[in-house]
Amino acid sequence: MNILVLTKQTFDTEEKVSIQNGRISEEGVEFVINPYDEYAIEEAVRVKEKNGGEVTVLTVGPSRSENALRTALAMGADKAVRIEPGVGEYDEFSVAKWLAAAIRNRPFDLILGGNMAVDSGSGQVAVRVAEELDIAHVTSITKLVLVDRKAAVERDVEGDLEMIEVSLPVLVTAQQGLNEPRYPSLPGIMKAKKMPLEIISIADLGLSEEESQSRTMVVDQYLPVKKQAGRILQGDLNQQVYELAQLLRTEAKVV
């Protein structure tokens, strides 16, 4: 079975975000595999261990994202591919185009990705890739069972559970609860350091500029306003409502 995993390197969720010159500063920042993508990698390795086959991990990102690929290899992936995005702007549309182009000439039965990226909050790329490849996709899965050429999937539906059966090839995105990602072993880490990575340029993908051009633009980036201390209103309910309305009008100026 040929299994592909879409990954992204993101800020460590413990990192403090700072803005410099209108951009998020990456100075001194620790990067990790997007946590939801770790579930996808773990599930891919488990499927391989049970059914045999090969796991290939793909990402779009600068050279630093190779650390994430090395971690995936140490977890049990067999091959890793990095698409070099260059210096231009790119968004979920272009990333999905590039990944789909890189996948199109590869054999695959199953594609896994994270439910969303924790840095952008986007859950777009994986499903866009499925649409580009014209294959079925199921998002937010919490259980995956493969029998013959079918996948029995359970997915989280805002606290409820939906059960779906779908034929391969299929793309699924991993939700928290799907599994418990393993820690890479020391032998796995040492082995992963020596494994070759496939690096693809945008030009190698054979897409026109129009096909892979971003469809969105970041206009501004800023940190949220620091929360102010709360205020407890006194008096009976009518007095509190009256005072609240006055404060919203005179201080907050929102009514």
TrEMBL record:
Keywords: Electron transport, Transport. Its cofactor is AMP. PROSITE patterns: ETF_BETA. The keyword Hydrolase does not apply. The keyword Magnesium does not apply. InterPro entries: ET-Flavoprotein_bsu_CS, ETF_a/b_N, ETF_b, ETF_beta_N, Rossmann-like_a/b/a_fold. SUPFAM superfamilies: Adenine nucleotide alpha hydrolases-like. It holds the Pfam family ETF. Residues 21-209 form the Electron transfer flavoprotein alpha/beta-subunit N-terminal domain. Heterodimer of an alpha and a beta subunit. Belongs to the ETF beta-subunit/FixA family. PANTHER family: ELECTRON TRANSFER FLAVOPROTEIN BETA-SUBUNIT, ELECTRON TRANSFER FLAVOPROTEIN SUBUNIT BETA. The electron transfer flavoprotein serves as a specific electron acceptor for other dehydrogenases. It transfers the electrons to the main respiratory chain via ETF-ubiquinone oxidoreductase (ETF dehydrogenase). This is Electron transfer flavoprotein subunit beta. It comes from Brevibacillus brevis.
